[in-house]
Design a protein that fits this description.
Length: 304
């Protein structure tokens, strides 16, 4: 992994020297802009319209447009001093339960490794967070941007997740057309809960694949090989008259899908509430037959 940042995690008077690595990678397929007539990649030039000349990177500063055509200018050193990036510090302000943070706040995850001289302090913070079950809420500046962050333990490694400030989260009140007082048909609600129960499985991220990226890569390989690209036909839309019919059809499709057998087995092995309705919903097709055989054998014993 490439080290993208070096600094320290601080809480109280304790400093934990760390190196930061990105925990995720962008798998998007990169395509360049090409001039169609000749096949040449299009280049982008930094050019000043007033001076009518190309601009070198060393001649570029950043500016805030406070009025149309009027800017206040900042150089790199001024911005670094203002946003605190020069401190190279992940400063933990508070400790909280992770369940108190809504997922809408989370941005990007980074792994933190101990620096060459910080293994003892790193292990101390790692174990303290693990045993307390808490996460640290910190402030950090990375790449000229100040951010809140959550410091937590992920599989024996300290991780930092940048999170939005409260004023960066748009209020729900701005979402249009939300029902003020939702009225739901009880039968439809029961069917919806049954469908949710049928589709509930343990989270296994490896089973989810980016099918769009796979199709694009296959098309790229076909074009390289000189083959004609064949687009997969769109799945025909299912015409469903009403909501109840859609729920019933969805339940029927799930119950007859052989690929769902392993999922229902996993659900049975996991702890579940002893709810009679859920038992009836989650029962597999062969269970009623098993019950009938048990009843018959019991009848034979009684008659004997």
């Amino acid at each position: 992994m490439h080290t993208m940042w070096k600094g320290a995690v601080s809480f109280g008077l304790v400093h934990v020297p760390v190196k930061m690595f990105s925990a995720t990678e962008d798998k998007d397929i990169s395509m360049r802009m090409i001039h169609k007539p000749c096949g040449t990649p299009v280049s982008y030039i930094r050019r000043c319209a007033t001076c009518e000349s190309d601009v070198a990177w060393e001649d570029i500063v950043k500016g805030y447009e406070y009025d149309k055509g009027h800017f206040v200018l900042f150089n790199k050193e001024e911005l670094e001093a203002l946003n605190g990036e020069a401190n190279k510090e992940i400063k933990i302000l508070d400790f909280v339960d992770i369940t108190e943070i809504d997922p809408v706040y989370f941005q990007k995850t980074y792994y933190l490794a101990p620096s060459d001289t910080g293994s003892n302090a790193y292990s101390l913070l790692l174990q303290a967070l693990s045993e307390s079950g808490k996460i640290g809420i910190a402030q950090v500046s990375i790449r000229s941007k100040s951010s809140l962050a959550a410091v937590r333990v992920v599989e024996g490694c300290l991780a930092m997740e940048t999170i939005f400030y409260p004023d960066e989260i748009r209020p729900i009140a701005q979402v249009p057309n939300l029902p003020e007082q939702a009225t739901v048909d009880e039968k439809e609600l029961t069917m919806a809960k049954m469908l949710i129960d049928q589709l509930t499985v343990p989270f296994e991220p490896e089973k989810y694949q980016d099918e769009t990226r796979q199709r694009i890569m296959e098309a790229i390989e076909s074009k390289i090989a000189g083959e004609e690209v064949q687009a997969a036909p769109n799945q025909p839309a299912t015409n469903v008259a009403d909501l109840m019919s859609a729920l019933q059809a969805s339940l029927a499709a799930v119950q007859t899908d052989p690929g769902k057998d392993s999922s229902s087995n996993k659900r049975k092995s996991a702890p579940a509430k002893k709810n009679a309705t859920k038992k009836a919903v989650g029962a597999e097709a062969d269970k009623p037959a098993a019950k009938k055989r048990t009843t018959k054998s019991k009848t034979k014993k009684d008659s004997s």
